[in-house]
Amino acid sequence: SHLVPDLRERSGLSLIVGGNDLKYLNLMQGWKTKELPKSQLSIVPRAGHRVPWDQPVEFVQQLRQILRKQ
């Protein structure tokens, strides 16, 4: 694993990625499956690489959901 070993075992780690950002969507899905199995992956539809700028309302909603779970 090339990620910091402590991250692998952390629960509560959240990843947010734009649904239209195929490069990072694939990367994050791979991390979620192989590197960070305890993480939460949130995919924001109709957003590219700059999720907060592309879909600000949906981004804030995702953040609120994440914070409610902590």
Description:
A two-stranded parallel ribbon has the order 1-2. With 70 residues, it is of the alpha+beta class. The chain has 4 helices and 2 strands. Helix 2 links the parallel strand 1 and strand 2.
Question: Secondary-structure blueprint of this entry?
Answer:
Blueprint lengths: L4 H4 L5 E5 L3 H14 L4 E5 L6 H4 L1 H14 L1
Parallel strand pairs: 1-2
Oligomer class: single chain
Write down the overall mean pLDDT: 88
Biggest β-sheet, characterized? 2 strands, parallel
N-to-C CA distance = 26 Å
Overall shape: it is flat
Helix content: 40-55%
- The tally of strands reads 2
Q: How large a portion of the residues is in β-strands, by DSSP E?
A: 5-15%
Give me the number of helical elements: 4
Task: Indicate the low-confidence ranges by residue numbers.
Answer: none
Structural class comes to: alpha+beta
Order of strands across the main sheet: 1-2
Radius of gyration: 12 Å
